[in-house]
Amino acid sequence: MTMKVLITGANGMVGKNILEHPNASQFEFIAPSSKELNLLDVQNVNSFLIKHKPDMIIHAAGRVGGIQANMANPVAFLFENMQMGLNLINAAYQQGISKFMNMSSSCMYPRNAQNPLAEELILQGELEPTNEGYALAKIASTRLCEYVVSENPEFQYKTVIPCNLYGRHDKFDPKNSHMIPAVIKKIYDAKQMQLPSIDIWGDGTARREFMYAGDLADFVFYAIKHYEDMPQNINVGLGQDYTINEYYQTIAQVIGYEGKFEHDLTKPIGMRQKLIDDEKLKSFGWQSKTSLTEGVKKALQFYMEHKND
Q1: Which residues are catalytic?
Q2: Cα atoms in the 13 Å half-sphere on the side-chain side of 302
Q3: What is the pLDDT at residue 133?
Q4: Half-sphere exposure (CA, 13 Å, Cβ side) for 136?
Q5: Which domains does the chain carry?
Q6: What is the C-alpha R_g of the chain?
């Protein structure tokens, strides 16, 4: 019998990468739009689950964005993400749905925690102010999954903590995009306009870990197959990071931009480093496959195909 899987956030980058993965055809996916399933409406959530009776839920929906979006809309980033997660997890528990994969974020980790960031560091220190609301919402959902399991061990409510992601179906508008898609657009435009230089926020020495979103989709199907063995909370990433300057240099090489970089030291940079600890991921038996250069090429191709949409 085919497993029926409800995926929220099916129109987002993570959701689309999961649904276009070759293994998706082995499952019956329910992929409602936000109009069909309003996660902010608890009654709507309950009635949807009663009607469709999924065997498993992958919660990938959320209000997402980079530093600028988080700083501009802190109320929505906290309230909407908190409400979505708590409504869905609690409703799933009430309806007896035994498997729940909660997609979280490495922004849950304390800003001053020692890198690499191990899963046990959640709630062990002050959060990064530039995305604190989003982080608080993700922590609440992660904890609720833990409470469900402690209250009823037959339920497998587990949290996946990806590092930063980029790739196909990303957002490239600088107002609501993360770093890599924003830089791809920025450097692509600079080449088209023959600009002699472009600016980098900060000194470019902050370190970040970005994984190609198709690799996260690959992890999801591996995890479904080995769900009982998956840890309660698991980091998913590369286990290595690069400086902001190195990301700019790699993207410039792929695009063929030969201008100079100038650092704007007045701009915020967020955390100095955010590298996940991948020991549990290694023990679980999975690793990412896509190199930075290969991933940037695929993301650039997607941008060029859809920039006029």
Answers
A1: 134
A2: 20
A3: 93
A4: 16
A5: 4-168+209-239+275-289 (3.40.50.720)
A6: 19
Chain segment 218-254, per-residue pLDDT in tens: 999 999 999 999 999 999 999 999 999 999 999 999 9
Would you state the pLDDT for residue 269?
75
Q: How confident is the model at residue 131 (pLDDT cuts 50, 70, 90)?
A: confident
Question: What ranges in the chain are assigned the alpha helix state H?
Answer: 13-19, 42-52, 67-72, 74-94, 132-151, 179-192, 213-225, 244-255, 279-284, 292-306
0.70 exceeded by the pTM? yes
Q: What's the rounded mean pLDDT across residues 19-29? A: 98
Q: How many CB atoms within 10 Å of residue 282?
A: 11
163 near 276, Cβ under 8 Å? yes
Q: Are 54 and 30 in contact (CB under 8 A)?
A: yes
Question: Closest Cα to residue 55, out of 96, 106, 15?
Answer: 96
Q: What tens digit of pLDDT does each residue of 175-190 get?
A: 777 889 999 999 999 9
Contacts of 106 (CB under 8 A, 6+ apart): 117, 161, 162, 163, 164, 209, 235, 237, 274, 276
Residue showing tokens 């920039």: 307
The answer on pLDDT for 72 being more than 90 is: no
Greatest Cα-to-Cα distance within the chain, rounded to the nearest angstrom: 61
Looking from the CA of 291 toward its CB, the CA atoms found within 13 Å total: 6
Q: What SS3 class is residue 114? A: coil
Which residue is associated with the tokens 């035994």? 98
